[in-house]
Specification:
mainly alpha, 62% helix
Length: 159
């Protein structure tokens, strides 16, 4: 029973949503601006953790970035202006979802191109095999048929 309770508690802890790292002293007094700041924080990469948003990260740099986002919002910047400011300062890497631009074109198109190339290679291989006739099975020789019949009769009698 004790084991089952620990398993249930562990599953509940795993199922809980991630706790955000935003500290109470960072929260803006205006709920609308705070909501904007949280939305922007979810779009920005923590430069220390790299696969976490600054909204989820406890790293000191993530805290600095959260404060910078709130500072820019308080100054009256729009969401695109805040993102542009951070991209100018930290580079395109700060965005969790990079923009579709000339510099990131290869990043966006590499996966579909690899998938299309793999599909084309598979199609060529199938086409080449069918052209060579390797997909068609040759009929069994009389010796092979006799051996197969003997094997099948041995298998039937052993059951």
């Amino acid at each position: 029973m004790r084991r089952m309770m620990s398993a249930i508690v562990a599953l509940m802890l795993l199922a809980m949503p991630a706790v955000h790292a935003v500290q109470p002293d960072e929260i803006m007094s205006d709920p609308v601006k705070e909501a904007r700041a949280r939305d922007l924080s979810r779009e920005l990469r923590c430069m220390v953790c790299q696969n976490q948003s600054i909204d989820d990260s406890d790293a000191p740099l993530a805290r600095d970035l959260r404060l910078l986002v709130r500072e820019r919002i308080a100054a009256g910047d729009s969401n695109p202006q805040v993102l542009d400011f951070l991209v100018a300062r930290y580079g395109e890497f700060v965005l969790l979802k990079p923009r579709f631009e000339r510099q990131t074109l290869l990043l966006w198109l590499l996966a579909p191109l690899l998938l299309a190339g793999g599909g084309f290679a598979l199609w060529q291989q199938i086409r080449r095999r069918s052209r060579n006739g390797t997909d068609v099975m040759a009929p069994l020789t009389p010796e092979e048929e006799a051996r197969l019949a003997a094997l099948m009769s041995d298998d039937a009698t052993s059951r």
